[in-house]
Amino acid sequence: xxxxxxxxxxxxxxxxxxxxxxxxxxxxxxxxxxxxxxxxxxxxxxxxxxxxxxxxxxxxxxxxxxxxxxxxxxxxxxxxxxxxxxxxxxxxxxxxxxxxxxxxxxxxxxxxxxxxxxxxxxxxxxxxxxxxxxxxxxxxxxxxxxxxxxxxxxxxxxxxxxxxxxxxx
Amino acid sequence: xxxxxxxxxxxxxxxxxxxxxxxxxxxxxxxxxxxxxxxxxxxxxxxxxxxxxxxxxxxxxxxxxxxxxxxxxxxxxxxxxxxxxxxxxxxxxxxxxxxxxxxxxxxxxxxxxxxxxxxxxxxxxxxxxxxxxxxxxxxxxxxxxxxxxxxxxxxxxxxxxxxxxxxxxxxxxxxxxxxxxxxxxxxxxxxxxxxxxxxxxxxxxxxxxxxxxxxxxxxxxxxxxxxxxxxxxxxxxxxxxxxxxxxxxxxxxxxxxxxxxxxxxxxxxxxxxxxxxxxxxxxxxxxxxxxxxxxxxxxxxxxxxxxxxxxxxxxxxxxxxxxxxxxxxxxxxxxxxxxxxxxxxxxxxxxxxxxxxxxxxxxxxxxxxxxxxxxxxxxxxxxxxxxxxxxxxxxxxxxxxxxxxxxxxxxxxxxxxxxxxxxxxxxxxxxxxxxxxxxxxxxxxxxxxxxxxxxxxxxxxxxxxxxxxxxxxxxxxxxxxxxxxxxxxxxxxxxxxxxxxxxxxxxxxxxxxxxxxxxxxxxxxxxxxxxxxxxxxxxxxxxxxxxxxxxxxxxxxxxxxxxxxxxxxxxxxxxxxxxxxxxxxxxxxxxxxxxxx
Lengths: 169, 597
Ligand SMILES: Cc1cc2nc3c(=O)[nH]c(=O)nc-3n(C[C@H](O)[C@H](O)[C@H](O)COP(=O)(O)O)c2cc1C
Ligand code: SF4
Ligand code: SF4
Ligand code: SF4
Ligand code: FES
Ligand code: FES
Description:
Number of helices of chain B: 24
Distance between the termini of chain A: 16 Å
Largest sheet of chain B: 5 strands, mixed
Shape of chain A: elongated
Number of domains of chain B: 5
Structural class of chain A: alpha+beta
Bound molecules: flavin mononucleotide, iron/sulfur cluster, FE2/S2 (inorganic) cluster
CATH class of the largest domain in chain B: Alpha Beta
Oligomer: heterodimer
Strand order of the largest sheet of chain B: 12-11-15-13-14
Radius of gyration of chain B: 27 Å
Number of strands of chain B: 19
Number of helices of chain A: 7
Order of helices and strands of chain A: HHHHEHHEEEH
CATH class of the largest domain in chain A: Alpha Beta
Structural class of chain B: alpha/beta
Shape of chain B: globular
Number of domains of chain A: 2
CATH architecture of the largest domain in chain B: 3-Layer(aba) Sandwich
Distance between the termini of chain B: 65 Å
Number of strands of chain A: 4
Strand order of the largest sheet of chain A: 2-1-3-4
Helix content of chain A: 40-55%
CATH superfamily of the largest domain in chain B: NADH-ubiquinone oxidoreductase 51kDa subunit
């Protein structure tokens, strides 16, 4: 993967986050949550910086980032799509939904579309099992989704929606 | 609190929230204001009512009217008709499926009749973001009673007497657990609330935290008093933003009221709570893994003993309890151990919350006395199977549990009965399946989950589950043999016996229980290479009926892999060596000419 050079601003943000947890090694997971929240994802360079600030090995930070599925090392699409693969959604046809999204966007789980608009992930139970099967685009929850609706949902986002505020690396 | 004549309770649980319940609340507020009813009518956003299937729910007090599937545009009708003219809006009432009669008061609905609400007592009744409403319903009275009138040991004895067992899955007696921590000697001890809720398809703990966060806070403080801990931590999934926000608000309010912090109720007891976030790892629900995760490490389980009660967070004695376990504690203190003990079966006391989901009419959150039968839960409360299909199985205990059939329907639900039936209580997920579900695929689904979530620390779980998955995958593709079935069994046994933590020890359960209860279905896959439920893609075949095909070419133009051939206006054919069984042609054909077998 090509190295990215972090902007001065990004470095400041990460340092501030670490400091707000008193550069305490035990707070690593909270630091990572906060950093991902502010930056969108956690590239290797950000992990290196965090390791440095918390005075721990890069391997340890990397080990934690890769252990937890919530942390991303790759940038998410502008509109991250998550398909619930919890049991309730599975028995109500989540697989067909996932299949249809993959077909429409022509990407696999974990990938983004070339234009960076959409990324596709699975998650496990968002707690709205009554609406199964469930798909989330960003924070918005779509319930009782049928494969035929996918095209319409994607189209909603394809045309000029406002980009959520995210800081650039 | 102001003296309102009427309260409009709008469900703010995750399910209803996803169906625009916030907009409903806003519209109701606007309407109330428009008609100058601000001083008489209060609009409140509550937690989940449980009846998510028919959400969004709006309930009106004091007349207990229960409106279902409300839309934002219904707000004006509700205010003008119900509030002003005093006429119920009939079209929004729940209709009894038996006779289509509208039912206005939820307590007459089959869904609620058999329920007994202890852990969920306040969900759907109070505004979770207003501590006064919790207090008005006996909130923090239990904490006051403990601090003011009882010694820690007396409280522990009361909990022991109640027979309460942990609701996180293990069923360990809660009073005993507290006693062990209380007897451990250390300069610092901790109380941890396990809100990781990893079982996919379960949302009990989330709903309690969203609907009644103070009940958990109060119980943690009581636990702190009993065990001699001054610090509490809630380990909660980052995927639960609404629950996190409600919990944060509740903690802040409790501090403002002096119910958390230094010298609570003017006694020497001090206690405060902070939050820790999970990051999407199922194994972190296991208590030792959870503790490591809170310490900022990878969430890998470690061998027990030592148990967290003796050596837990940062090596200090730590009581880990599940959300639902905690939510029941204030009731045990307020109403007494005898009350709790009078509900349930010989060895499982009190009530249990279940998240009822899958192919069932009334998906939702329910709380029933231990000892209620599966039949009562699925057919009376759950309203039976969706679309009039046949009941096939019910899965309890999530990835650690098993699938139970018809023959277990009259089993009273408790910890021990479910284990002897080959499943387990788990945290309360209950997924109902119908005739269209393939049990081999279900077992494979759970194995895929386990595989994903195994932390990889020990070999039987890391590699053994992978092998199990491969065999199941082979079977669902029609490539399995009868020997594979016995291989599955023996491998399951090894994994069960040799894995380090509960995840590996229970991961074979979905396979074992389906092998026991649906052996015929496995046999059909390996002997006849057929999937009786028609779910395994590789085993289905699409064919075009030449008598019905008009040669419209629609399927030909839509097949993504070019598996269909045929001339215009002449019958088409599918080449099964190319077909990927996507089903597109089947959906597209307007002449019903394509069949699946
Ligand atoms: C793989 C695994 C996952 C678990 N997940 C949870 C969970 O999500 N929530 C929970 O409360 N307990 C979970 N437990 C049980 C906890 O280890 C622990 O027993 C429980 O939190 C204790 O609380 P209780 O006594 O109140 O039930 C899990 C156990 C295992 C082995
Ligand atoms: S049984 Fe599985 S999850 Fe548990 S410690 Fe071993 S590898 Fe990790
Ligand atoms: S869509 Fe149906 S009718 Fe049309 S060509 Fe295909 S099979 Fe024949
Ligand atoms: S099922 Fe899909 S791949 Fe097979 S013939 Fe029909 S459209 Fe083509
Ligand atoms: S399983 Fe999908 S929302 Fe619960
Ligand atoms: S979320 Fe509204 S009733 Fe459950």
